[in-house]
Amino acid sequence: MKRYIAIKLGEMILVMLAVSFIVHVALELNVGDVAAKVLGQFSTAAQRQVWLKENGYLDPFLVRYFRWLGHFIVGDWGQSLRFRTEVISLIGPRLAATGILAAATLLVTVPIALLLGIAAGVREGSLLDRGITVFSVLTTSIPEFASAVFLSAVFVFWLGLLPGASTMTAGFSPAELVLPVMVLSLYTAGYLARMTRSSMIEAMASPYVRTAMMKGASLPRIVFRHALRNALIAPITVIMLQIPWLLSGVIVVEVFFAYKGFGTLLFEAALNSDIYLIEACAMVGVVVVVVTQLISDMLYTWLNPRISFRDVGRREGGA
Amino acid sequence: MSGLKLGRLRSMLGGALHPAVRPLAEQATRGEIGRREFLRTAAFLGVTAASAKAFIGDLGLVGEAAAQGAPKQGGTLRFACSVMEMKDPALVTWAEPSNLYRNSLEFLAEVDADNVTQPYLAEGWKPSDDLKTWTFKLRPGVKWSNGDDFTVEDVEFNFKRWQAPDSKSPNKTSFAMVTKFEKLSDLEFRLTLDRAVLAIPEMLYAYTCPILHRKFDEMGSDWIKNPIGTGPFQMTEYKVSSIAKFKRRDGYWGKPAFLDEIQYIDLGTDIAAHVAALAAGQVDVLYRVTIAEIELVEKLPNVRLLRGKAAQTVVMRMQVDQKPFDDIRVRQAVCLAADNQKMLELAYRNRGVVGENHHVAPFQPEYFKLPPLKRDVAKAKALLAEAGYKDGIDLELVVGNTQGKWEQDASQVLQQALAEAGIRLKLNVMPAAQYWPIWDKVPFGVTFWAHRPLAVMTLDLAYRSGASWNESHFSDKNFDAALDKAMGIVNPRERSQAMEQVEKILQDSCVIVQPFWADKFAAVSAKVNNHRPHPADYFRMDRVWMT
């Protein structure tokens, strides 16, 4: 297990190096753009040149990359061009805000989805199963930007029940969290419910469940004691995959509701070619993906002791 | 002239009136120029606003209706506006941050919501007859929020800073013609220019020109850390991309503001979120509403859509030294085949004024009305054939959508119109952030031009030979000479006549397809009073009040 974790962390560092290099190449091909963005579109060429020189942009590309890398390792993540402040001080609060959003979404999604999935999977083909399947297909196939518009049309413009923007400028407000969580949950719950349903169907058809049934065990006992634990492996994978998605992939929802999270930070950074900020966001993204993967791998062994990691690192080498 | 009460008009600096005041007053008396024109030019010529208003009042020309009801003191106003970085106000690159510091920092002159220039920190000014020397008199009794007196030293510090060799401010280019700054007294200074410039007071209201305290650089060149200003509000909180707060301060030299506090709330880039926040009562004022949202805003209860005219426009400009646009017949074909009226109707829902391909707006003071443009597809085809493109021509137009998708909509209408003449237009649409670095480099592109109080300000920047923002590379000696002539004329009617030639040369050279002048929109909750759309989005909040 320790060996496995060490290999995973080593891989993570390699991925971070590769990603950071690619981001640097992509963003710094045309450094003139950076000066134009900072000084405005109407600055003169001479003014841009002075700025580039002062900020070390005229050095060769590799020099700039390794200088950035050296600083990054010791915790100096550079200055954001757009916010004119330390990148490292920007990331924390934004990550926390998105963490709250992600946690709230999981808190809503997971119980609902598991419940729906189990209910549907226990009696395959029943009316309830069909109803739940239709519902989950429907919600999964509506993209967030569409459901965001639809839900705010209903709850903000029509009923006037909920706030339309979720900036949280006056401090944390649960009401402002409702719409973004609703949009994200609708999207993820359907998918998760379908995954749970199919693993549940599989578990219910397995020999040990049949044996339990023949022994006359009650349905709740069969479901919760025998089938569920095994049926949870696939949904757990999905849930763990949702966490990196919830941290970086919720840009659409965060931007739509003006929620000041990690997604909007990355979005603003990308819009403004804010190189150090994009780099930092990418690095944080890599860490989140690898760590959630590690956690989900460990959860597997707890759910099903037959899965072991003694050879995994050697066999798979990656994700 | 008998009956002309010139005696009522007073010079701001005392002494004799500028020689151009008399013909101006005569034109106003004969009704040849309107109230705004008179007030604008009178202020420009150094006539006090009060005496000019009294004069115009005698002529029976009354102004717009005043705000309804008596203003109420107090309240907090929440303004949806991007909270951008603004450590050094002379370096900001967008108007948004200026709307924050405009509550605390003030300018020498102000161009108000009616596009009329008014005294501000300068109590008055007077240009020499040749418009090459400008004398300014500062308002006495103005104090900085830290208790210091506001003096000519502060102004000198700012001018020096803008013009310093290492200055990165756009002011360095715009005030390059100022060769000398002379202190005449504690409250008076004189600018000497190397050429005649008409619009010095207007230029001093550009958003990069707020007057900073003379010790700004000594205190660390960071206005966020030391938000010292002469204005009616004091900044109390500031978080980039999140929130900024301004509280009314005591000891302001002018009339105290009505509001207790203004909060600027950053709602990100998606205007749909802004409208939703206004509908839900989370904010009271939207900085800007685009054409895409106005129909929704009009339907919202307890919300008012504000609409204003502004000399803001998009131009589809062609670089006259790039193939195939170096052949004027190709440019003529493009202009003849384009349908400006249709672009206004379809892309901007008819909420604006059709453009005439010369970048002078009918509501700018120097506008001269030329015969209307006529669309002529047959002639466009003939010109193309003559230029060697019998089977039509392929062109690419770069669209940055810097103000919204309506730029792309207008380009699509253009695409359809040009197709009729055999011009196959390909649209290359890219995000604004990608577009700005190349806005002046592409051979054929759509550029948004913001409002300028005077049309000559734009023409001087964008179409004079070798001008810094001359994106079309247009260069014509006759145009430059005609523009020089117009820019040296103080009297609005005479200047307008001189503009006939300027407009005609530019229109005939077919440098731009200018579909329309786009109206400006903002939205406020019904509680907000006296907030008016400003043609350049330069809002002053001290006269705004809430019920």
**Main sheet record of chain A:** none
The helical percent of chain A reads over 70%
Quaternary assembly = heterodimer
Kindly state the number of beta strands of chain A.
Answer: 0
Classify the secondary structure makeup of chain B into a structural class.
Answer: alpha+beta
Biggest contact:
A-B, 41 and 44 residues
Low-confidence stretches of chain B: 61-67
Mean pLDDT across every amino acid position of chain A: 84
Using the alpha-carbon principal axes, give the shape of chain A.
flat
Report the helical percentage of chain B.
Answer: 25-40%
- Report the uncertain regions of chain A: 311-319
**Biggest β-sheet of chain B, characterized?**
7 strands, mixed
Structure description:
The complex is a heterodimer of chains A (319) and B (547). Chain A is mostly helical. Chain A has helices at residues 2-28, 31-39, 45-54, 61-73, 87-122, 127-141, 144-158, 174-204, 207-214, 219-231, 233-248, 251-256, 262-271, 275-303, 312-316. In chain A, helix 1 (2-28) packs antiparallel against helix 14, helix 7 packs across helix 8 (174-204) and helix 9 (207-214) runs antiparallel to helix 10. The radius of gyration of chain A is 24 Å and the shape is flat. Chain B is an alpha+beta fold. In chain B, the strands form seven sheets. Chain B has a seven-stranded mixed β-sheet with strand order 8-9-10-1-11-20-12. The longest helix of chain B is centred in the C-terminal third of the chain and has 17 residues, at 492-508. Chain B is globular. Chain A binds chain B through residues 30, 32-33, 36-44, 47, 50-51, 82-85, 149, 152, 156-157, 160, 162-165, 167, 169, 255-258, 260, 264, 267-268, 271-273, and chain B through 84-85, 87, 91-94, 166-168, 170, 172-173, 240-243, 263, 265-270, 272-280, 282-283, 296, 300, 431, 433, 436-437, 439, 468-469.
List the helices and strands and how they pair.
The complex is a heterodimer of chains A (319) and B (547).
Chain A: H1 2-28, H2 31-39, H3 45-54, H4 61-73, H5 87-122, H6 127-141, H7 144-158, H8 174-204, H9 207-214, H10 219-231, H11 233-248, H12 251-256, H13 262-271, H14 275-303, H15 312-316
Helix pairs in contact in A: 1-14, 2-3, 5-6, 5-8, 5-11, 6-8, 7-8, 8-10, 8-11, 9-10, 11-14, 13-14
Chain B: H1 21-29, H2 35-44, H3 49-58, E1 76-80, H4 95-101, E2 109-111, E3 117-119, E4 122-127, E5 133-138, H5 152-163, H6 171-174, E6 178-185, E7 188-193, H7 200-203, E8 233-239, E9 243-248, E10 261-265, H8 271-279, E11 285-286, H9 294-299, E12 303-308, E13 313-318, H10 328-337, H11 340-347, E14 352-354, H12 377-386, E15 393-399, H13 406-419, E16 423-429, H14 432-435, E17 444-449, H15 455-462, H16 477-487, H17 492-508, E18 512-513, E19 516-518, E20 520-525, E21 528-529, E22 545-546
Parallel strand pairs in B: 1-10, 1-11, 15-16
Antiparallel strand pairs in B: 2-3, 4-5, 5-7, 6-7, 8-9, 9-10, 11-20, 12-20, 13-17, 13-18, 14-19, 21-22
Helix pairs in contact in B: 1-2, 2-3, 10-12, 11-13, 16-17
